[in-house]
Every structure is written in C-alpha cells, then in structure tokens.
Design goal:
The complex is a heterodimer of chains A (211) and B (275). Chain A is mostly helical and 211 residues long. Chain A is built from ten helices and no strands. In chain A, helix 2 crosses helix 3, helix 3 crosses helix 5 and helix 8 packs across helix 10. The N and C termini of chain A lie far apart (48 Å). With 275 residues, chain B is α+β, with helices and mostly antiparallel strands. Chain B has three domains: 49 residues, no CATH class; 28 residues; 180 residues, Beta-Lactamase. Chain B is built from nine helices and six strands. In chain B, strands 3-2-1-6-5-4 form a six-stranded antiparallel β-sheet, sandwiched between helices. The longest helix of chain B has 33 residues. Classes of the chains: A mainly alpha (211), B alpha+beta (275).
C-alpha cells in the first residue's frame, strides 16, 4: 500500500466497498446551497423537496387556506431562485431564513386579505369573526398538546401573535396590556415551546437533556 | 438600533429574536436586525432557536402538500431560465450605442429633402404605394442591401413585410413574430435599434439566401399607435451610422404623419359619403 500522505483514503478498495454499503446521510444544507449557487439545476429541485413542506406549513398556520399557502410556497422559492443572495449564510441557517421569510410573506398576505375585506363595511364583522374563529379552530390536537399546559395569559397572547399574525402593539391594544408585558409574554411563550420541544426530542431520542 | 454585538444571550436578545421570527418587526427594524445578525453570534443563536420552535409547531400538523405545486414551480423556473437565455442572446446582437461612435458618412441633406418632397407627392395614392416608394428611397439613400416596412398586425401578433426593396424583395408578405423579432424588440424599446448579425438570435433569418450583417430598425407611429417599423439591412460588411439613422428617422416621421393624414382623409370621405 502506498504511503503517499496525499492519497485519498476513500480510493482504497476496502473503504470504497464500505462506502457503497454505508447508509446514505442526507446532504448538508451547505453542500446543497453550494451546488445551487454554482447553477446546478437539480439543486433547486432538491432544495424544494427538502423545504417545501416547512414553507407551506409555516404559511398555512398563518393563513389557514391551502390556495394562499401554496402562493406563498411559490413566492418563497421563486425569490430564492431569482435572488439567491437574499439568503446570507453568515446571518443564520437556510432553515431559519426560510421559516422567517415564509411567515413574513404569509402575514403580508393575511393583512392584505383583511384590508380587502375591511373595504366592505357590511361584511366586516361577520368575515373578521370567521377568520378569527377559523384560526382558533385550526389548532389541532398536536399543536394543542404543545400549547395546552402553557399558562392562559401566555397562550392567549401567543395565539394572537402566532395564529393571527398580530404585532405586539396590536395585541396590547386588543387585550389592554402594556407593550412590555405583551413582548415579555410572547418571548416567554416561545421559550416555553422551545423547552417543551427540546424535552420531546430528548424523550424521543432516549437522551434526557434539558435546555 | 441593533448596532453592537451582544456578548451573551439575555432576555432582551431572546425577546428581539422572538418578535423578529414571528414577523413583528417593521421593514426598517428588520433590515437593521438582519445586519446585526451577521456580527452577533448570541442573536443568531436566539433566532435559530425561535425559528426552530416556529418550524416545529408548523410541522406538528401533517399537511397535504398540493402535488401540482412542485410541478408548477419547476415548470416556472425552467421557463424563466429559457427566457433568460433568450434575453442574453438578444442583448448580444443589439449594438445600438455603436451608431454614435462610428464616423458618419457625408451628409446629403439635399438628397433627403428631394426624397421627402417626392414622397409627399404620393399622398394622394394608397398606403401601399407610399410604403413601396418609402422603402425604395431608404434603400437608395442609405446604400443598403434591403429596405423594408414591417406592418404590425396586432390581432395576429405578427409583423408582415408589406413593402420590400433590394436583395430580399422576394420575401414580401413574409412575417416575423411580434414577441421575438428585431421589429418587436424595437417597438418594445420604443426607439431605433441597431442589430449585428441578428440570425444569431432570431434563427429564422438563417434560412434566408441573403444573410443579414447589420439591421437598423426604426419604429413608426401614427399618432401614438405603433404602425410598424421601417428598416434597412446590409448583406455584406456595410455598417450603418448615425447619418443612416437620421435618414431613416426622417422617413419614419414622415410616414407616420402621412399615413395619419391619409387615414383621416379617408374617414372624412367615408363620413361624407354616408352623410
């Protein structure tokens, strides 16, 4: 066997055999992103396959409407395709960026939709109530389980922010709470969910660590 | 607002990250915060945590991703990519800025004036007669290989070569698409364009027995409505200059006004006959 230190160890017969039989690990986002930036056509399809469910789901939890959520899905990936530099790896992960962008686009669309509805004074009260009810009714068992044992005041504040896309200013006005209190509750609610999810993962993995 | 990196995570960094991830920030605050993220590891970590919680909450529900969404998206990007290729090709054959850089031929304004006078004498005839005379004059004054008038037929989305003189005269009646032709591009720009070997972009020209070396195309309007384009082409190494453009533009302006007058007169005559 050669002792050349520059030799690629994976070219060794035994190791290449091992590589064929080893389970395939998913490609890292950084590698997938590099392929995309190099203009490899398959890379955008791979990115779509990896993250379309996330983008659609994030939008759906705001919009509660399949067609509007699909629009957001298309917009987000078209933005990525047309302006790849919109995502800057130095500012965070692709998954975080897609989550934030999808949510923001969904909220923009929701506000536009509400503004259109508000034009007609007659139907405002009915439709606005229906939208709010629809948002609350969309909370499924799994989400309820995550939010269920959250203190009431945190949960109400968080649901308005998360499910209805209201800002902390709008929530304060609606609930009559000071701005600082609303911001604190939003932060605490998200922290609560983060801890709970960490616990769930730890239980699933049989690896009890607490955040 | 978010200028200095934070040494460690605090309640404040957690609160900012939560509001940012939930979409609470104004566009200005968002931009400022995103700039801050590139230098602040503590806030990046908070954003990762908050966005992960939002993502997992969203993914807690199983959704039926519409199957056609993937197909629609991939079709769209294929189309955009193809359009991009077309656009790159188009840019490569447009050399309009060269017109002003080239030394112009000797001006012959007497010849131009005489040609316009002659054309003015055609106003009593038909539009077709005027266009035929126009392309003959353009061919002669610009020393071109072919001169043509392409009339825009909006309904059919084509230009038809209704008047031709010179080497390509036999192609009279031929059409080019409104969306993909030197004439269409010129109307899109709304001003004259010079094309170099346009067959590299508009492949249908390559079937012609006379390859086009350069094409100078000028839009023609009747009032504000596009009538079509007046153009000259060379089939050898003849390069057009701003003097050619001046001649062609004068003819185009004359033609637009003349046809406007002819159509108005026709309309008045029709109204008189009915009245």
């Amino acid at each position: 066997m050669s002792t050349n230190p520059l030799r690629d160890p994976f070219r060794d017969g035994d190791l290449s055999q091992h590589r064929r039989t080893a389970p395939q690990l998913p490609e890292a986002d950084s590698d997938l992103w590099r392929r995309f930036k190099l203009g490899e056509e398959q890379a955008i399809a791979d990115l779509y396959d990896r993250y379309s469910e996330l983008v659609y789901s994030v939008a759906h939890h705001v919009l509660h409407d399949s067609a509007f959520s699909e629009d957001v899905l298309q917009e987000v990936f078209l933005q990525l395709w047309r302006v790849p530099d919109a995502f800057e790896p130095a500012k965070g992960s692709l998954r975080a960026w897609l989550t934030v962008v999808s949510r923001r686009r969904a909220i923009d669309r929701l506000r536009k939709r509400k503004a259109e509805i508000d034009v007609d004074d007659v139907i405002v009260p009915i439709i606005a109530t229906q939208l709010a009810d629809a948002a609350v009714n969309q909370i499924t068992d799994k989400v309820s389980a995550l939010l269920g044992d959250m203190p009431e005041k945190l949960r109400v504040t968080f649901e308005l922010a998360y499910m209805q896309g209201l800002t902390h200013v709008e929530i304060s006005e609606r609930l009559g709470d000071p701005l600082g209190t609303t911001k604190l509750r939003i932060r605490m609610a998200l922290d609560f969910i983060r801890k709970k999810l960490d616990c769930n993962h730890a239980n699933t993995n049989g690896n009890a660590h607490v955040r | 607002m978010f200028d200095r990196p934070h040494p460690v995570s605090t309640d404040e960094t957690a609160e900012q990250a939560a509001l940012y991830c939930l979409g609470d920030f104004s566009p200005e605050d968002r931009r400022s915060y995103e700039e801050h993220l590139s230098t602040c590891a503590a806030c990046r970590a908070e954003v990762e945590g908050c966005s992960a919680a939002i993502a997992e909450l969203a993914l807690a529900d199983s959704v039926d991703l519409p199957s056609k969404a993937r197909r629609d998206f991939l079709t769209r990007i294929h189309t955009e990519k193809a359009d991009g290729r077309h656009w790159a090709k188009l840019i490569s054959v447009i050399i309009t800025p060269q017109l002003s850089a080239r030394p112009p031929r000797k001006k012959n304004r007497d010849q131009l004036g005489a040609a316009l006078d002659k054309l003015a004498g055609r106003l009593s005839g038909s539009e077709q007669e005027l266009l035929d005379a126009l392309v003959r004059a353009a061919l002669e004054l610009c020393d071109a290989g072919t001169a043509g008038f392409s009339v825009l037929y909006e309904d059919e989305k084509v230009f038809r070569w209704d008047a031709l003189a010179g080497a390509l005269a036999g192609a009279k009646g031929g059409t080019t698409p409104r969306t993909w032709s030197p004439c269409g591009t010129t109307l899109d720009f709304g001003k004259p364009q010079l094309f170099s070997k346009p067959g590299r972009c508009f492949e249908y020209f390559n079937d012609s027995p006379h390859q086009i070396f350069e094409g100078l195309v000028v839009p023609v309007y009747v009032k504000t409505k596009p009538l079509g384009t007046l153009w000259i082409a060379s089939h050898d190494d003849r390069k057009f200059d701003k003097e050619d453009l001046q001649v062609l533009q004068s003819f185009a302006d004359f033609c637009g006004s003349a046809i406007g007058v002819m159509r108005e007169r026709q309309a008045n005559q029709g109204a008189d006959a009915r009245g």
